[in-house]
Amino acid sequence: MELIRIGMVGYKFMGKAHSHAYRDLPMFFPHAIKPVMKAICGRDRDAVGQAAQQFGWESCETDWRALVARGDIDLIDINAPSNVHKEIAVAAARAGKHLFCEKPLSVTLPEAREMLKEAERAGVKHMIGFNYRYAPAVQLAKKLVSEGRLGRIYHFRAWFLQDWIIDPQFPLVWRLRKEIAGSGSHGDLGAHLIDLAHYLVGEIQEVIGMSETFVTERPLPDSMTGLSGKGSQDAPKGKVDVDDATLFLARFANGALGSFEASRMAPGHRCTNSFEINGSLGSVKFDFERMNELQVYLTDDDEDIQGFRRVLATDPAHAYMDAWWPPGHTIGYEHTFIHEVLELMNAIREDRQPQPNFADGVRCQEVLEAVERSIAERRWVRMSELSEEELEEGIDR
Amino acid sequence: MELIRIGMVGYKFMGKAHSHAYRDLPMFFPHAIKPVMKAICGRDRDAVGQAAQQFGWESCETDWRALVARGDIDLIDINAPSNVHKEIAVAAARAGKHLFCEKPLSVTLPEAREMLKEAERAGVKHMIGFNYRYAPAVQLAKKLVSEGRLGRIYHFRAWFLQDWIIDPQFPLVWRLRKEIAGSGSHGDLGAHLIDLAHYLVGEIQEVIGMSETFVTERPLPDSMTGLSGKGSQDAPKGKVDVDDATLFLARFANGALGSFEASRMAPGHRCTNSFEINGSLGSVKFDFERMNELQVYLTDDDEDIQGFRRVLATDPAHAYMDAWWPPGHTIGYEHTFIHEVLELMNAIREDRQPQPNFADGVRCQEVLEAVERSIAERRWVRMSELSEEELEEGIDR
Amino acid sequence: MELIRIGMVGYKFMGKAHSHAYRDLPMFFPHAIKPVMKAICGRDRDAVGQAAQQFGWESCETDWRALVARGDIDLIDINAPSNVHKEIAVAAARAGKHLFCEKPLSVTLPEAREMLKEAERAGVKHMIGFNYRYAPAVQLAKKLVSEGRLGRIYHFRAWFLQDWIIDPQFPLVWRLRKEIAGSGSHGDLGAHLIDLAHYLVGEIQEVIGMSETFVTERPLPDSMTGLSGKGSQDAPKGKVDVDDATLFLARFANGALGSFEASRMAPGHRCTNSFEINGSLGSVKFDFERMNELQVYLTDDDEDIQGFRRVLATDPAHAYMDAWWPPGHTIGYEHTFIHEVLELMNAIREDRQPQPNFADGVRCQEVLEAVERSIAERRWVRMSELSEEELEEGIDR
Amino acid sequence: MELIRIGMVGYKFMGKAHSHAYRDLPMFFPHAIKPVMKAICGRDRDAVGQAAQQFGWESCETDWRALVARGDIDLIDINAPSNVHKEIAVAAARAGKHLFCEKPLSVTLPEAREMLKEAERAGVKHMIGFNYRYAPAVQLAKKLVSEGRLGRIYHFRAWFLQDWIIDPQFPLVWRLRKEIAGSGSHGDLGAHLIDLAHYLVGEIQEVIGMSETFVTERPLPDSMTGLSGKGSQDAPKGKVDVDDATLFLARFANGALGSFEASRMAPGHRCTNSFEINGSLGSVKFDFERMNELQVYLTDDDEDIQGFRRVLATDPAHAYMDAWWPPGHTIGYEHTFIHEVLELMNAIREDRQPQPNFADGVRCQEVLEAVERSIAERRWVRMSELSEEELEEGIDR
């Protein structure tokens, strides 16, 4: 079995990124299982039909239930808005389909847990779309940590800053509405940071956070497309009920200290997904706006030439880069999805869960939830509280 | 007519980049003419068959003459080694095919001129692969110059530095052999700088250069693949007869001063294709290793906040970026080819010559030739010398 | 009166920096009151005598009481270890001397408050050594904020990272002992960040922090000089009772969110005193390791050239730079002290309190204290708690 | 003899920088010979008197002949305009004074040679003010080259870019007049690059250049102070007879290729004195606007973490830095002069010629002259031509 037949729900920003990944994978990673772009699903028949043609899907559906019911589909890719993830995922799992779901896994922790349980019960493969892991420079950071080249980890500081809503007239798109998006910068941007923290440093033990909505009312959008939308000065306004910014401190199980910040109100930052790790033997720094680079400092360099090195992670020594272009020829955002899909295909072939999977999605959702609770209750929240509650809930049932 | 059927000669580094461009174009620029990947051609039947399958070509050929003779092909894409460009291009033009040829146009100036003449005579469209023009940050530089926002241009300095042959044991691959490649860093890297100079500043009036081969013997390669190759310490050695580095000074017709440097012996530079322009009102700086960025300085900024701005050319205000991802989500090397192919498709639809075309290739070749002559004769060479010679040659015939 | 006669306590790192400031001031700011380097004081007669000669002091003392008692001294400069600040400052104030005290004002909040009260009661001028305010690039940040060019402030994030104790064999110098230094990175580095926050953003309303000592035992030092010291592997060890790192979140009175981090365990960071401010109209970024630069982003730049500008704050338009060298000729760490002393001299002439003064020192100490309390009690601490307690204490007396 | 009594001619930009160096040396390098600031000389009695007081000179003179005649002076420091260097230096040498002369040594090569001969004949110490050698980061570059850590040198590229005359209304100050300054950017900025090339790479064998004056007329200045001046739109204009920009290519005796560019018409560059060296084993990059940093790349770094390191040259392992502040606390432009004066004092004590000395000044002048000749005659000029001419001239006499 060297083909996997994909059915995808959603066709906008993430739908485009995923579609492209399926298209490009066989060309650059010809030895991987080939994803077959079987069907794409969306509610607007014209729009989804147009997307199918443009992106290269064989067919389209307007009801995700119909998609899930199809016998010629092996894997359901879910990149619809977050509030419908769970229902689709559960149905697909029950139909025996493998799952690839965009982050955050769901808008609430219980739903996320349910998704994991259902996927496990169904015995299918399940992946979650924390694509930033798959930048080669991030892979290099992981390698340096794993090989002990940074020593004992002391600090993880991370910030994901954007500025696309800095204009108070930017409209109230779905990403700014709690019922659909779950949260604002916290779940959208902070979720990525939390996953990177888990990936690079390990378990978080406790957190305390703070958040704010600086612009509390925005024009209602006339139409919504991807991240953007159009509003007018005179348009009626609606209340923004998600956070513009959320910060939190964390203590990791291994003793490291963490600092996290997610904001959509940081002018000049289009997509600054950035982290730094300091360990007893060295440090690394990453900024997604220069995603091909990792800054690396090692304490054992000769004493007269110590300094952060700008490593351009495009050499054959770097993950995935053999498949692309010669050294120095950089790759872009969309490549993270291709590498992610490669991992998904490899995991299916090797009959193991892909990394990251729904368990990682739940772990991330737990931290998101703990931070929100810490904000609401103005106190440190231990991650163990949430798992104990889960246990109790389980017992109660 | 909304389809163009492509036949491509060559299937290695550039062949892969071009193939990918044809694949991706319809997805991201759905309103463009669609290139149909009809046939790919190479001498090694197995290898080209494998490439056809991997890259997505409908069929393959092992003789470029057969390819050119096919009736179901509208355009011939030539990315075979430089020394065979001319023969293929001339035959294709005579067969009425549009042409897309990698740079340099040919290994000698007379051949390049012949290619242009034949293409013009045939009335076909002809494009040359100076892909770096098509980085959005370079497009922004062009826009700033064209709109006069940098004022009168004083300086153009450019350097294309690489380090892939820094190891003296790196083998004598075809790019280091004059009979196949024409020249070394000069024609490979310097050609790109010259084209950017033409594009951004204008005509060059006179030049004087200097070149060097630092490592004069290298192991003969056992096999050659793309840029790399494998040699051993004990392998027999061959003479390197191309330049490792070529530098030259230039005076532009508009009075600007130019400085050019191409080298493959600059450790730490994987692909530093970099230029800076200084004008009476401002400056711009570009480095391909950070290809999404343009540094911009304007003299009329407020006096307390003057400084180079790092513009991340990923906003909707930047060329092509509407077709890709939200601001801050960068693109990579391969995108320059997609934009280039878009220009090719648009030019065909609009019945005009694409930019850059064979005339630009000839202009570039003239400068390459003038620099070589200036090196051989140790004197300034005016570009007018070459055009006068051409005129005379024409008369003589 | 155009002379101020200085008596200084302390002659090591800060003593050297202050001495140099007094020496250089008249040359570069000839219109300022001239500080006369009257006497320097330290316990070790030979060492202080040597320092007097080297730094250019007219005389020396070995007992600070004798210094304070001298009639030919107008101002006492205190840069001895933090635990003796209070006693000296109080005595000097009572003797009618102006005060210039290094930060932190003292090791406890009550002592700091007492110092302020005594200085106010005595009617003398009092300054505290938050020298980083006086980097021209920081002055530019202040100007941009004050003039409203960044709009409403949303975010202040700051980190002061060093790595001088990253080696576990680095000895237990006085800066690592609570009884002398009061705290570790918190009071040493964090204090600077807090002062910058007060200066650039305004009052802090509440805080919550976290701290850690990663290396809990270190060799006892054989000798101590400035920041360094010598230890051996076999040396007896002592307990480190100050923090290696302290982080905290803050909410400002104006609604901005703050994130602070101080660490001495961040490899590759020699002296990264860095902050970023995001406002509704723009952002600025500063890093002391590139102290002549401020990164500035403005949302109203033309849409195709938006980006952080690297402003080299060495133009005549920048604070103090007229006194130094032509644009582009940078200054260094020690210049912050010269500018600071200029402010001190100007304040004395103009009969006003210098900026920052002991009131700023107390404000900073309050935040340091609030953070420590928040760590001990694992809860948010409002700054108003501390002022209410002060009020009550006052009533109790 | 542990004192050297200085007499200085000139009191503006360089006069200030030198004065400060003499003032600061004993404080930071207490073991060096102490320079005694005996007398300063300038034609304007009031102005020089004011400078003497401000800078800390014991006395002043208005006639350099009187200064040279004084018995209480050991060393003459010459930083008057370039066209008077020779006369003063020769007289001072004949009077047995040591010499410290700003660059360029003189405005013509014969004069420069005469200065060297006279200094040698008199047996005095002679230094020339190529201060950029004395940035610790440049010293580090020198160390890496000298120790062979960069291997065989292939490339030296250097550019010294400024923008202080970019405004066409900037007046015709003395630095823009050939009779006083000798040349424009070439002798002012290019001279520094040539000295760095000599210092870091070695002898230059041949050169070819190009230069331009972009703004050929400028308002006559009402007054001139340091680099600046004031002009008005309606002011009468004078002809600019020096170069705004000069570029040249060079071949070094050791086979390295050189590229040099000096311009005062490069917007955004306040003082970009920058060079890069590529060798067979590594590269270094320097930019004076970030003078505390050296970028270092080594080919033998581990293959997954190769990259340019930003070395902040403020560690004890770096030249001079032990005398200053802890690591990470940067120094500025003026420090290069302090280190330069330290070398001067050390050379006097050790009875050797300081580095760089008048011989280096002549070498530099020879290259300046060769470049000018290459421009005038539009041909490569070998450095040996100039030395042969010198020989002939010597024979003719």
Describe the structure.
Chains A, B, C, D: Residues 4-130 form the Gfo/Idh/MocA-like oxidoreductase N-terminal domain. Chains A, B, C, D: Residues 138-284 form the GFO/IDH/MocA-like oxidoreductase domain. Chains A, B, C, D: It comes from Paenibacillus residui. The structure is a homotetramer of 397-residue chains. Chain A folds into two domains: 3-130, 3-Layer(aba) Sandwich (Rossmann fold); 133-349, Dihydrodipicolinate Reductase, domain 2 (2-Layer Sandwich), CATH 3.30.360. Chain A is globular and about 65 Å long. Helices cover 35% and strands 26% of the residues of chain A. The mean pLDDT of chain A is 95. Chain A is built from eleven helices and 19 strands. In chain A, the strands form four sheets. A nine-stranded mixed sheet of chain A has the order 18-17-16-15-7-14-13-8-19. In chain A, strands 3-2-1-4-5-6 form a six-stranded parallel sheet, sandwiched between helices. A two-stranded antiparallel ribbon of chain A has the order 9-12. The longest helix of chain A has 20 residues, at 358-377. The first copy, chain A, is of the alpha/beta class and 397 residues long.
